[in-house]
Amino acid sequence: MINASLTELRAALDAKRISSVELATLFLDRIAAHNPTLNAFITVDRDGALAAARAADARIAGGNAGPLTGIPLAHKDVFCTEGVLTTCGSKMLSNFVSPYDAHVVSLLKAAGAVNLGKTNMDEFAMGSSNENSHYGPVKNPWDTARIPGGSSGGSAAAVAARLAPIATGTDTGGSVRQPAGHTGITGIKPTYGVVSRYGMIAYASSLDQGGAFGASAADCAQLLTAMAGFDERDSTSLERPAEDYAREIAAPANDKPLAGLRIGLPREFFAEGMAEDVRAAVEAALDQYRKLGATTVEVSLPNARLAIPAYYVIAPAEASSNLSRFDGVRYGHRAAEYRDLAEMYAKSRAEGFGAEVKRRILVGTYVLSHGYYDAYYLQAQKLRRLIAQDFQAAFRECDVIAGPTSPTTAWAIGEKADDPVQMYLSDIYTIAVNLAGLPGLSHPCGFGGGNLPVGLQLIGDYFGEARLLGTAHQYQQATDWHLRRPA
Amino acid sequence: MSRSDWEVVIGLEVHAQLNTASKIFSGASTAFGAAPNVQACAVDIALPGVLPVLNRGAVERAIRFGLAIGANVASKSVFARKNYFYPDLPKGYQISQFELPVVQGGEITIRVGEGDKAYEKTVQLTRAHLEEDAGKSLHEDFHGMSGIDLNRAGTPLLEIVSEPDMRSSAEAVAYARALHALVRWIDICDGNMQEGSFRCDANVSVRRPGGPLGTRREIKNLNSFRFLQQAIDFEVQWQIDTIEDGGRIQQATVLFDPDTGETRMMRSKEDAHDYRYFPDPDLLPLVISPEWKARVASEMPELPGAMKARFMEQWGLSAYDATTLTASKEVATFYQATVDAAGVALAKPCANWVMGDLAARVNKAEMDISASPVTPAQLAGLVARIADGTISNNIGKKVFEALWNREGESADAIIEAQGLRQTNDAGAIEAMIDEVLAANQKSVEEFRAGKDKAFNALVGQVMKASKGKANPAQVNELLKRKLEG
Predict the structure, then answer these.
(1) Where is the Asn/Gln amidotransferase domain (chain B) (predicted)?
(2) Distance CA B173, CA B14 (A)
(3) Which residues of A are catalytic?
(4) Where are the domains positioned within chain B?
(5) Closest chain A CA to residue B83
C-alpha cells in the first residue's frame, strides 16, 4: 500500500480491502517513524486526518466516492488550512492558525482527500534547498546529508519517502520541479492561472502557481485535476472549462506511442553548466524518448540566460510588497517590547523573518524605489516578454521542450548556504518557465553520482499540461525510475 | 506689498466615496456607523493568502463620472500598489491607480460670486482614479494604545484631481460645490461630508502674476466648504507673509485646525514617502469595452449643464435662475416636476417660487427639498391659481403656508375652505374704496398735496378691508380713478 499508485489505492478502497482510516493510519505511522529524520512536516494533523478518513469511509460505503475520496495527501505549508497552523516556514507565522481554507485545500477537502499535515518549506517559498525554513532543513530521503531542493522540499521529500502518496506544492521559479528532480519523483507546475492562488500565501504573485507531486505522471494528473479550475476569488485565475488532466494517461497503443511528437532541445540548456552525471542521464532519457517514437529537434531560447536576473528583480519586487502585511499588527509575530510604532514594525519584522526573506525584501524595495524602477523593474518586465517570445518561437518547431531540471543533483546541506548567487543559479532551467507562465513537469530519469536522482524537465505550451503528463506517462511505462524508492 | 500683487494658484484633490453596497475589492458591506471591525472580511484585514477582486459597480461609477465631465474613459487602466506602513493599512499597501487612471482629462464649469460680479469659469481636470480607502486609527480611549477600525478599509474611492486652475478660495469653493453637486447628481457618491464621503485636499501656492508657479503646500482632509475657504485664505496669507518677510516656501503637507483657523505643517518634502508604486500583480488591467461605456452612457441622467441650457433656451430663464435651479439634483428634479405639472408657460413663476418661498422654508427647516411637505404638484396648482387671477401673489403666500402645514390637499382646496378667492367685482371694490377714502381724509389730502406714499397707504387700507382678497391691480386702477376724478 505504501508504494501503491493512486489507481491501486482507489481500487483497494473501493473493494474495501483497506479502509481510509487504515490507510491514513499507515501513513501517519510512517510520518511518526521517519519525520524526526527527514523533517518533511511542520505540522502533522493526526486527529484531523482520522476524522476526514472516517468521513471518507462513510462516503465510500455510501457509494459516493470520487477519485480522491479517502486518499491521504499532504499540503505545503504555504496553503491556508482552516483550524490548522499555517506557518509558511516562517517564525512570522509560527502562531497563525488560519481561519479559512485555501481554494486548493477546500477543493481537495470536498473531493474527500485526507490531509495528513503541512509540509516544510523554505520560508515564504524563498529558496532552492529548504534550508531557509524556520523549522529546520528538510533532508533528502536518498541521502539525508543532502538537501531535497526547494522551496517545496517537504512535500517532495514526503512523497519520495512515501510519507504521503501525493502532495501539493507551489512553484514560483522551480519550487515544484526542482525538488521533484532532486528526490526522484514527478512534479508538475501548470500554466499560470490554472490553479487558484486564493489562500496560497503569496511570494511573487505574477509567478506563483500551485502544483502537484506524485510518484508518477499518472498520480500527478489525478491530483492536478482535483486542484485546478477557475476561482472567482483569484482575478488571475483563468476562466476555462474544467479539464481532465489524466485524459492522455493511457496504456501504450504500440511500441512507438510517441510517434509524431517533436521534442525541442534548447541549445542553451545543453551548453556548459550541466554536470556530467546529469548530462548522461538526460541524454539517456532522450534516447528513450526517441525509442518511443519521438523526434528531437534543436531549438533556441536566446534570452533564457537573462531569466535569473529578470526573476531576481521581479520576484523580490513583488515579495517586498506582498510581505508588507506581516507587520505584527493583526496576526503573526509581534516583538515583545517596543517603544513606538516604528520600533514595533522594525523589531517584529527583524525577529519574524529569516535572512533570505530579508535579503529579498531589501532587493525588492530597492528595485521599486524612485529613480530605480525604470532601470530595474521595467527592464526586467521587458526581458520577461522577450523570454516568453522565445518560447513561442520554439513551439513553432516542437511540441514539448526537454532538458535537465537542474544543472546538478542534490548538494550537501550547508554547501551553498553562504553563497546566495550559487543557490540562485541552481534554478537556471526552471525559472524561465515561470516568467513565461508556461506549464513544466519534472520526472525522474536516472541517477547520478552517489545514487542521487536526476530529473528531466518537460516544458509545454500554454495549457499543454495533459500532453506533458501523457508524454511523461509513456516514458514511465517504458522505464522504472519512478518506481525506485530510497532505502 | 499688498495681496493684490500676488496671484493665488489652487488645485484640488477630492476623494469621493463611491456609493456601492460592497467594498471595491471584497464583498464586505460599506454601510457607515457599524461597530468597529464587524464589516472587515478576510480580504479587508489582509489575512495571508487573500486576493482582491474588483467590484464592477465601482468601475461603473467611475465611467459615469468620466462621461459626466467629458473626459476620456480609458479603455485600459491599471491598478497599482502604493506601498507604505501604517496600522490602519492592513496590506502595507493601498491599491490605487498611478500611471494609467480610469478617467483622464475632462472639465467642469463653475459659477463664482453673486449678482453683477458673478462670472463663469471652466476648470480642467487632470484625472480621476479608483482606489481603496484605509481603515481608521483611534488614538483615544485605549489607555495609551491605539485602536484600529478596519470597517472603512477597502471602501471604494474616486480621487478626482483638478489642474491648478483656481485663482481664489471662492473659485476653489465653487469648484468643490459644483463637483459635490455633480457626484450626487449622477448618483455615485452620497456627498455626506460629515461622514467623510467627500473630502478635499487643496494644493495652494502664490506667485507674481504671469510668473512661474510658486512652491505649493498641500492642505489635507478638509471636510466642509467653510473649512476649505478658511484654510485656503489662511494659507495664502501665510505664504504671502512668509515670502514678503524674506522667507521661502518649502513643499509640505499641512493640516487645517478648525479651532484656530490655522494651517500647520504635518510633514515636509524630506519626510515624504517613496511609495514604490508598481502594477498590482493580483489584478488584471481594467478593460472597459466600448459596449460597457455605451450602456453606462445610455443610463446617464440629464446633466446639470444640459438642463441649465434647456431651462434658458426653451423656458426663457435667466442664467442666474437656471444656475440656481440646477445647483443640485434635488432642486432641479423638484423644479422640473413643478413645471411638468404647471405647464411650460409658467416656468418663470414656478422658478420664482422654488427659489423664493420654498427655498426659504426648506432652508429654515434644515431639510432637503425632496422632503418638502409641499409637493411639486401642489406648488404647480398654487402657481396656476395666481396666474389665472384666482388669488393674488400675497394670498398665494398664505396658501403656500397652509400647504406647508398640511392644512389642505391642494391650493384649490385651501382657497375654497378658507374663502381666499380674489374679489374681481368692481362694484364691491369701489364700495370698499369709498369707505376707506371716507375714513382716511388725511391720506387723501396728503396725496393731493403730492405725497405718493399716501397712495400706497390707501391701497393697503383697501386690501386690508378686503382681507387681502381684492384684486390688487383693480384696486390700484379704481383708486387712482377715484382720487384723480
Answers:
(1) 333-483
(2) 12
(3) 76, 151, 175
(4) 12-203+259-293, 302-418, 426-484
(5) A321
